[in-house]
């Protein structure tokens, strides 16, 4: 293996779907022909102006894009209070929590359902952790009149009851999954089992930039609207690029969507924030910090696993980050050193959640609260004229019960 | 002659039996399959996330891991089996991550030492063969691939390339242990596959009864039974060997005499 720096960080994956040693197509043979079909169809769609026009039109008029770019003045000032003289970077938010359905997940679902329709598929399945992807999938299925089955771990069904009800209101069938720890990983296993038995008519809308090729690529491309917009907005508002991008990472779709359009801007640093749960020496969901390369759910990537390759149960207070793997492009970006990765514990995310509520009047989801907590550590070390841009990838309505319980508040 | 070519003879079909390693008394269960008349043994390597398996084999995986089964135990079961049964082909079946965790060379060397003849890696598509295939072939171990109803003629050569031992035809698009395909479709697909290869073709997924096994044995080189056996291990625990022997004997009689 050479340590040579690539000419561009934006031309992955290769024709076999590999990001360096990561990614690939590790699926049962039944799915392989379909995966190859999807790849052909996606390649054709990318080259079709009508596909892009329909995607852009739906994002503008149905999702509500572009989402605002917002300077968080009081959040910035509050962090400066405890910063050394001259320190305390400006904090800006890409407001993807204002999207229809309350998170970035809908960007990807719009793209994938258009692909499903192109391929003549008549039934949609999805997995969901926090329920945001399930809600977004149920939403686009209602919009296009397709039946929708969402697999969701039983544990998550219980801790995300409002989203379960939302999916049902939207006409989706929510199937609680009881195997394993009954969270996102197990929901994904069950969705794959459904797919393998229904390949002829079913399209699987994967919710994050992971899974077999071409999913990591196409999810990234659909989510890149975040970074493309943010880059233009930042240039227009400030005449410069940000110094640091920050985003939370479960599978990593909002982070790759923000990062990818900036990867070849050498002066833009990037920080991906994993969930350290109860701590990296205890139960957590930080697969880059605490895992090893392995193969699961169709791709090679960093996984939480034991010495025999058995997959460990992840833990995070945020159901959306509670997954023992990570998208393969992040694994590659870590190994190349282009992106820095850190992790934030449950308690730190809870503090950041409350801090944003009080300083900005924005209730964030627990997922971006991890990114906020990382900013609270990083901004006071940076100069005042430096700019941090974070993706506020979801709103916190779904999390208020979890937060209340964690804070010992009875509702 | 390899153990595989002995097991798949031209004049009668072979019975291929699957159980999960570390689920129940593995040695006694394996011996019962051989006593019942199994021609090839598939020993499942347990995995936390068996996403191509139905409920019966999922539960077997979890029972095995719950009992503390490690990769070292699977290798020990294989090695002990080979010492007791020098002539019966032994195939390890499972998922990629436990197989490549310590590197493909480590895995190939240790299973070769244990006397394993072939490996079925469910989630290693031919496209990802470099992760395991070269290491297996270097040690003389057969990578056994799966073909399915969705594997068309254009794709079959890629599936067959680098594989040996036998080809496993998965007769239904789905997970293990569920519905069974119509015999006409099985016959057509086996004939189609055999136009591309001289390898024996064994057919599995959803085979539970002697009657089903007999019908398949008329049109294929082998019949694979898994979930029905694994369910007996789950139901009878320590008493499973006698049950396994009886079911295997009835399946073996049906398979071996199907073409008479």
TrEMBL record, chain A:
Entry GO CC: cytoplasm
Broad EC category: lyase
Keywords, in A-Z order: Amino-acid biosynthesis, Aromatic amino acid biosynthesis, Lyase, Pyridoxal phosphate, Tryptophan biosynthesis
Pathway the protein contributes to: Amino-acid biosynthesis; L-tryptophan biosynthesis; L-tryptophan from chorismate: step 5/5
Cofactor(s) the record lists: pyridoxal 5'-phosphate
Presence of keyword Ribosomal protein: no
Task performed by this protein: The beta subunit is responsible for the synthesis of L-tryptophan from indole and L-serine.
Family classification: Belongs to the TrpB family.
Subunit comment: Tetramer of two alpha and two beta chains.
Designated name of the protein: Tryptophan synthase beta chain
Organism listed in the record: Alteraurantiacibacter aquimixticola
Lineage: Bacteria, Pseudomonadati, Pseudomonadota, Alphaproteobacteria, Sphingomonadales
This protein's encoding gene: trpB
From TrEMBL, chain B:
Catalytic residues as annotated in Swiss-Prot or TrEMBL: 42, 53
Reactions that this protein is recorded to catalyse: (1S,2R)-1-C-(indol-3-yl)glycerol 3-phosphate + L-serine = D-glyceraldehyde 3-phosphate + L-tryptophan + H2O
PROSITE patterns noted in UniProt: TRP_SYNTHASE_ALPHA (PS00167)
InterPro entries: Aldolase_TIM (IPR013785), RibuloseP-bd_barrel (IPR011060), Trp_synthase_alpha_AS (IPR018204), Trp_synthase_suA (IPR002028)
Gene Ontology terms for molecular function: tryptophan synthase activity
Pfam families per UniProt: Trp_syntA
Pathway it works in: Amino-acid biosynthesis; L-tryptophan biosynthesis; L-tryptophan from chorismate: step 5/5
GO cellular component annotations of the record: cytosol
Domain of life of the organism encoding this protein: Bacteria
Top enzyme class: lyase
Catalytic activity, EC: 4.2.1.20
HAMAP family: Trp_synth_alpha
Function: The alpha subunit is responsible for the aldol cleavage of indoleglycerol phosphate to indole and glyceraldehyde 3-phosphate.
Known partners and oligomeric status: Tetramer of two alpha and two beta chains.
Family according to the record: Belongs to the TrpA family.
Protein name: Tryptophan synthase alpha chain
Native source species: Alteraurantiacibacter aquimixticola
């Amino acid at each position: 293996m050479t340590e040579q720096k690539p000419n561009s960080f934006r031309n992955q994956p290769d024709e076999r779907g590999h990001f360096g040693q990561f990614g690939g197509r590790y699926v049962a043979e039944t799915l392989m022909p379909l995966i190859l079909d999807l790849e052909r169809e996606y390649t054709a769609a990318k080259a079709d102006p009508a596909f892009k026009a329909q995607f852009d039109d739906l994002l503008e008029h149905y999702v509500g894009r572009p989402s605002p770019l917002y300077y968080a003045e009081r959040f910035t000032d509050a962090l400066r209070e405890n910063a050394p003289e001259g320190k305390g970077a400006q904090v800006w938010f890409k407001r993807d929590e204002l999207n229809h359905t309350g998170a970035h997940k809908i960007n990807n679902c719009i793209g994938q359902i258009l692909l499903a329709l192109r391929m003549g598929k008549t039934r949609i399945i999805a997995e969901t952790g926090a329920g945001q992807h399930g809600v977004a999938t149920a939403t686009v299925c209602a919009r296009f009149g397709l039946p929708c089955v969402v697999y969701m771990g039983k544990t998550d069904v219980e801790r995300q009851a409002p989203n379960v009800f939302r999916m049902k209101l939207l006409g989706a069938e929510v199937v609680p999954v009881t195997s394993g720890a009954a969270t996102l990983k197990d929901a994904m296993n069950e969705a794959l089992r459904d797919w393998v038995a229904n390949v002829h008519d079913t399209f699987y809308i994967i919710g994050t930039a992971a899974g077999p090729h071409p999913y990591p690529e196409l999810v990234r491309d659909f989510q890149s609207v975040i970074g493309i917009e943010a880059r233009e907005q930042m240039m227009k508002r400030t005449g410069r690029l940000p110094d640091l991008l920050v985003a939370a990472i479960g599978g990593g779709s909002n982070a790759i969507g923000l990062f990818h359009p900036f990867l070849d801007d050498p002066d833009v640093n990037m920080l991906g924030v994993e969930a350290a749960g109860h701590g990296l020496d205890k139960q957590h969901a930080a697969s880059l910090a605490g895992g090893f390369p392995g193969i699961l759910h169709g791709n090679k990537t960093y996984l939480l696993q034991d010495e025999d390759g058995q997959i460990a149960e992840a833990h995070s207070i945020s159901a959306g980050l509670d997954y023992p793997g990570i998208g393969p492009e992040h694994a590659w970006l870590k190994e190349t050193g282009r992106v820095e990765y850190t992790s934030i514990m449950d308690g730190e995310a809870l503090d950041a959640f409350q801090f944003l509520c009080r300083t900005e009047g924005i209730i964030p989801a627990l997922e971006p609260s991890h990114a906020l907590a990382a900013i609270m550590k990083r901004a006071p070390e940076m100069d005042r004229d430096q700019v941090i841009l974070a993706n506020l990838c979801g709103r916190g309505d779904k999390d208020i019960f979890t937060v209340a319980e964690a804070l010992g508040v009875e509702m | 002659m390899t153990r595989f070519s002995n097991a798949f003879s031209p004049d009668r079909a072979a019975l291929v039996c699957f159980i999960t390693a570390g689920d129940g008394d593995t040695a006694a269960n394996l011996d019962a399959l051989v006593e019942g008349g199994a021609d090839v043994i598939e020993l499942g390597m347990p995995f936390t996330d068996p996403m191509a398996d139905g409920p019966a084999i999922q539960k077997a995986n979890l029972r095995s891991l719950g009992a503390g089964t490690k990769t070292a135990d699977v290798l020990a079961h294989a090695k002990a089996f080979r010492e007791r049964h020098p002539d019966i082909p032994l195939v390890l079946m499972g998922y990629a991550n436990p197989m490549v965790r310590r590197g493909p060379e480590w895995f190939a060397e240790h299973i070769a030492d244990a006397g394993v003849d072939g490996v079925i890696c469910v989630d290693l598509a031919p496209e990802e063969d470099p992760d395991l295939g070269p290491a297996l072939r270097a040690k003389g171990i057969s990578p056994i691939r799966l073909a399915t109803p969705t594997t068309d003629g254009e794709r079959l050569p890629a599936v067959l390339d680098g594989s040996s031992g036998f080809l496993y035809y998965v007769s239904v698009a789905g997970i293990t242990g569920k519905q069974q395909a119509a015999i006409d479709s099985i016959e057509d697909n086996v004939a189609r596959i055999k136009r591309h290869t001289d390898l024996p073709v064994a057919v599995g997924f959803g085979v539970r009864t002697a009657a089903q096994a007999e019908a398949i044995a008329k049109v294929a080189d082998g019949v694979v039974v898994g979930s029905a056996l694994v369910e007996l291990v789950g139901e009878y625990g320590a008493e499973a060997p006698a049950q396994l022997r009886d079911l295997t004997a009835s399946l073996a009689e049906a398979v071996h005499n199907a073409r008479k």
